[in-house]
Structures are given as C-alpha cells and as structure tokens.
Amino acid sequence: MSCDLFDVIIVGAGPAGIAAAMVSARAGLSTVLLERGNYPGSKNLFGGILFTPELEKLVPSFLEKAPLERHMSRRRFSFLTTDGELALDLWSNRFNQPPFNHSFTVMRSKFDRWFATQAEEAGVQLLTGVVVDDLVWKDEKVVGIKARGEKEGQFDELYASLVICAEGANSLLAEKSGLRSGKSKMTPQNRTVAVKEVLRLTKEKIQDRFNVREKEGVSVVYLGEVVKGALGTGFLYTYEDSISVGLGCEMKDLIDRKMAPYDLLDHMKSHPVIAPLIEGGEVIEYSTHMIPEDSFRNLPELATHGLMLVGDSAGLINNSIFQEGTNMAIASGLFAGETAVEAKQKKDFSLSTLSRYREKLENSFVLKDMRHYGGFLDMMREHREYLGLYPELTLEFLVNYFTVDGRSKKEIKKETFRKLRKKISIPKLIMDMIRARKMI
Amino acid sequence: MAKKISLEDRLFLVQRNFGKKSHITIDQEAFRKDPVKPILFICPARVFLLNESSGECVINHENCLECGTCQVASRYVKWTNPSSGFGVTYKYS
C-alpha cells in the first residue's frame, strides 16, 4: 500500500462504518473503508431487526432498493415455562404501511453488501480482505492504521487525519487504543454470547404459521425457560423464505452455570412452544457472535485525538426489552461522519473537535435511551424474579384460574389465590411492580 | 420438531477457510491452573478440547466462527483476526 494521506480511514464495513464513510465521502473527504471479510457482511450477524430511521436519512429510497426480507408487523414477547407460554402479541395494520414502523428483517450478508455499494457510489474507497491489527500513533495522536501484510510480522501502514473504529463487538482495536480500559474492557460481565440458526421454510408455511401475509413478518423475544432462566433471551425472526432462531446469554452467567451455547440452542428448539414453529425447517447456517452489554456508566471513551469509536465497538446498544442496535450503529456512524467533516473544515482533528461526536450522541436517542435503560440489566441480574418467578406465577395463576374441573368458579378462585399467597408476599410484589415500571 | 442437528453438522454448514497456522494461541500453564476452564464449554464452535493425559488444551482453530468469546472468557487465550481470505464467510446470517 502507498503512503497516501487520506482524510478518513474507517475500520469495519458494518452499518456504523458504512454510514460514517458515506457521510464523510459525500462531503468530499477522501474516505477509505476497510473490511477484513471477503465482502461486507460476510462475518456479520445480528438477531435481528434493522431499524431504519437513520438509514432513510442516508438513503431515502432504501425501501425500493435495499434487500429487505420482511417488515415487522407483529412483535411478540413471550415468556416460557417448561410447559407453557405467556405472551404479548402485538400486531398493528399501521405497521403494514410505510414506513413499516422502520423495522425490517435482513440478512447481513446481503444488506451490508448493498449498503456498502451505496457508500461506494458516494465516493468511498472500499477495500475488502484487509485485516487491521493496530493503530499508528504519533505524538499521542492516531495518524493511521497497521494492516497485516503478506509476510509474518510485516505490516502495511496507511495514514489518515482521522481513524474511525467500527470493528464491532469483538473490540480488539478499541482495547489496544486505550479507549476501552478499566471497566470498559471486554469482560464476561459486559459481553453476551449469541448463537443462531437459519432454517429454510417455505413462504406459505411461514405465513400460515405466524399468521402474517406476504412481506409481513414477526419478531419474537423469548424469556424464561427458553434459556433455562439464565440472564438472556431467545429470539425468532421471519425472513422471506427462512426463519432464524437463536439466543444470547451473558457470558458470566453461562460460565457460572457451566452451560454450552449450542446445548441451550438444542434446548430452545425442542421446547413444546417453539418446536412446532420450526417443524420441517432445514438448517442452512449456524452462526455465532458476541453482543456488547456495556452499561451506560461503563461505556468506553468514545474519542481521542484522531480516533472515534462507533457502533458495537463503542458499546452503543439498547439492551432493554427494546433490543435496538442497528439504528444506534447507523446513527453513531452518521454523527462520527458529521464530526469528521467539521474537523476537516476546522483543520483540527484533536479531541477538542472530536468531542462534538459525544455531544451529538448525548443529544440524540442513542445516549438518551442508553442512559434511561442503563440500569436494566443490573436490575435483571439482581432481581431474577422478574425473569423467573413472576411470569411463572402469573402463568400458573392463569392456568389454575381457567381450569375447568367440575368445581365452582368460587372454589377455584379461592384455591388459586391461596396458592399464590403461599409463594409470594403481596406487598413485595407491589413494590417490585412499581420498580419495574421505570424499565418499560 | 425440526430434526436435531449435531455441532459437527452445524459447523459443516458454515463456509470456512483456514490455513495451517492457528490464529488462536493459549498459555498452557495458565490453562492448567484454571479450575473452571470455561473455554471448554462456552466456545460455540467447540474449538478447545482437553487432552486428558497431558492436561493440555488442544485448539481446533479450523472450527472457529470468530465470535471472540474465548479470549474474553479466559484472558490467557490470545485470539487474533484470521488473515485476509481466511475464516468464516456467512451467507444467510
């Protein structure tokens, strides 16, 4: 590689990196986007839903152009016990109209690849198969990257006024840079391990089984017995002619319980509620990834002189019941791109200009939501009853309540309430419900 | 229910391309001293196996799906990105 000086080098062509590259190139900055995979999206995966308000800002015609699978007209939140389900099933015909609640399933291998071509059209120079092992520093400023060369131990240096790190959840560069240090280093407490399978099913079967029409889809979040009560959730998403099933659990919890992720996936797939939904599905891919669970107060530093972190690398995920990441990734890329443009105008790439990036995030939904839901996981950790005992008792209560066995309703109700009181203190329950309200 | 699928069959489905040289290394001494050895069960691709007789960890790096979990679960594992052209290429994820 040559010693050209670029305005911006972006490491990682996922949604955050591509968005940053696009904004930067559109403003006329010379922008290089580096991807270690054979093509953008080839090493990426997510749950997941692509949330699109920020994508629409960047590519207003994405609805016609992007490789979208299905829009999410049905959102289901399901608590599982060993032999039952208590679910909230939300469907709205409003979600069937543009902008489709800005929620779509996509395959990352197709979507990221397409998104990157949009960036290339904006003038971004995309280089694939480039593995970045380190940053180049000069006078405590980041001035470039070290790409792994052909020979062992040899590196090609590439220089830029600014580096944007969009390497993802496995944040090796962010750690090396020092921006992820202390409590923001990757630990079993701030990383979830996720595994997923994609199963082929016909369109007709998907639409019949999940009660949706052509182009419509469903997302299901599973809680409780699906992960044997561990701190985590299961998921199911419908694509056009396939579905994905998988789960994510906090790494520490898996270690403490000595659980293997693939065993949990087997357990999930054989659950009496889930098994009929995936019946006949042929597994076409198995995949795994980490998910950042950085809490708001332990986020990494988001910038230093000549360097910004975006997306998963910066830990920008709303890990509450909303499970939003793609929108935060694209938003952070957008803000980093804008900040790069401002820095170029000022000819100042030091932290004094780059700190604008954090301000932009603070003033947007990204850090507002992360701040608000910052305590969600801690609360789930400390009060396991929200994921276990409470929904279990509710389900048990309802099963008893609706039991038909020849007794009078009065007798059944009396018996049901008596059982409930034996298991739970009502004042504590009320207090806990008040506390839970804040988390919704 | 859908037919049960073994981890070996799952891995077989993923397009992977690995060279002879491992992108994962381990401090065997630290592994030996670790009473928990989480990498033996937490790795979603079962890259790490225990050699019962020597107490050493055997690394099947060609199973790796590049999640990076191992080095976070056990800091005595050193994981680096596979070199250009190597590693997993997902098609449907």
Detailed description of the structure:
- The complex is a heterodimer of chains A (440) and B (93).
- Chain A contains 16 helices and 17 strands.
- By secondary structure, chain A is an alpha/beta fold.
- Chain A has three domains: 202 residues, FAD/NAD(P)-binding domain (3-Layer(bba) Sandwich); 105 residues, D-Amino Acid Oxidase, Chain A, domain 2; 60 residues.
- In chain A, strands 3, 4, 5, 6, 11, 12, 13, 14 and 15 form a nine-stranded mixed beta sheet that branches. In chain A, strands 1, 2, 7, 8, 9, 10, 16 and 17 form an eight-stranded mixed beta sheet that branches.
- In chain A, a hairpin with a 6-residue loop joins strand 9 and strand 10.
- In chain A, helix 1 runs parallel beside helix 4 and helix 1 runs parallel beside helix 10.
- Chain B has a domain of 61 residues: Alpha-Beta Plaits (2-Layer Sandwich).
- Chain B has a two-stranded antiparallel ribbon with strand order 1-6. Chain B has a two-stranded antiparallel sheet with strand order 2-5. In chain B, strands 3-4 form a two-stranded antiparallel ribbon.
- Classes of the chains: A alpha/beta (440), B alpha+beta (93).
- Chains A and B meet through strand 11, helix 7, helix 8, helix 9 and strand 15 of A and helix 1, helix 4 and strand 6 of B.
